[in-house]
Amino acid sequence: MRVLAAMSGGVDSAVAAARAVDAGHDVVGVHLALSTAPGALRTGSRGCCSREDAGDARRAADVLGIPFYVWDFADRFKDDVIDEFVAAYAAGQTPNPCLTCNEKIKFSALSERAVALGFDAVATGHYARLDNGELRRAVDEDKDQSYVLAVLTPQQLSRAMFPIGDTPKDQIRAEAAARQLSVANKPDSHDICFIPTGDTRAFLGATIGVRPGKVVDADSGAELGDHEGVHGFTIGQRKGLGIDAPAADGKPRYVTEIDPDSGTVTVGSSEHLQVWTIVARRAIWTSGTTPTEPFEAMVQVRAHGGLALADVEPLDGDGTDGVEGPAFRIRLRSPLTGVARGQAAVLYRPDAEAGDLVLGSGRIAVTGSVPGELATSAGK
């Protein structure tokens, strides 16, 4: 097969490309230039889109003896990932930009160009596995990225390759060193690649601007403080609430609700964070077939953590549950906390034998705090 290897400049994508070569494929390496300031250097180990990363990717391709190109996707990345990220925070949501990048850049824009140029598949360094077209968790559970890949359609998965998903990370580094790849000990990228400082609140503040609002108590409704915009908060946040006085009971306060229309941020105890029901929109079924009956699944609501057994009901998306289009309702068997609108709800097989199998995903739109009941608005 002709394989396009997406090379970020890190150790994972370099080994993924090397394994594609070993498998006998005709491999071409490509680095995606996603930054609108391509001359920027990386800061510490943050990000994956800098000039240094492009150089690291090129050197890895040279060692592997494969052609290498840099493709400029900066405009598409800004429109589809950065702008959506900003708009979601402005709407009181908590988006996952890595998930959006996979959905709209790496396995949509990049894959489409690859197919147009005659490639059969796109190989990446994601920690996940494909088994007969079905998406599964990686062997290394600590590095598993199936959560951020669960937004891919069956067609997109059919053109994807994840060569390192069957190997623990420490063995990937050892393999890179044995192959004399200079990125063998390169630190992992972390945080958000287009916010190299790691200060998300400052980035959003400079982008969205000041939109003052009130911080109020969940029980009494009393005003506890002021803020400069709901974009500075996310569900479950404990620090940086701008509250001077401690709670009457001395317990920590957390962000429990965000209302972008009124600019109100509600804070309360950990008990207020409990979510029992979820409606997710933009449903994607990994098998390509929409379920018609309720079923049991393990639900994950964050990239790392937030896992619970649940009953899932497919919805026709007629708007009665606060969403339109393909959707599903989740009734949790035990409550989860820190469930934020805009994040993904990813469904896995519930049994121990095949519990690593992804069934589908959707974006969290509505949450409810009463077992078996749902909120009737976009908020909690």
TrEMBL record:
Its EC number is 2.8.1.13. NCBIfam families: PRK00143.1, trmU. GO terms for cellular component: cytoplasm. The gene is mnmA. Residues 278-364 form the tRNA-specific 2-thiouridylase MnmA-like C-terminal domain. Residues 143-145 are annotated as: Interaction with tRNA. It catalyses: S-sulfanyl-L-cysteinyl-[protein] + uridine(34) in tRNA + AH2 + ATP = 2-thiouridine(34) in tRNA + L-cysteinyl-[protein] + A + AMP + diphosphate + H(+). Keywords: ATP-binding, Cytoplasm, Disulfide bond, Nucleotide-binding, RNA-binding, Transferase, tRNA processing, tRNA-binding. It is an enzyme of class 2 (transferase). The active site is at residues 101, 193. It is found in: Cytoplasm. Catalyzes the 2-thiolation of uridine at the wobble position (U34) of tRNA, leading to the formation of s(2)U34. One of its GO terms (molecular function) is tRNA-uridine 2-sulfurtransferase activity. It comes from Williamsia limnetica. SUPFAM superfamilies: Adenine nucleotide alpha hydrolases-like. This is tRNA-specific 2-thiouridylase MnmA. It holds the Pfam family tRNA_Me_trans_C. The record marks 126, 343 as: Interaction with tRNA. One of its GO terms (biological process) is tRNA wobble position uridine thiolation. Coiled coil: none annotated.
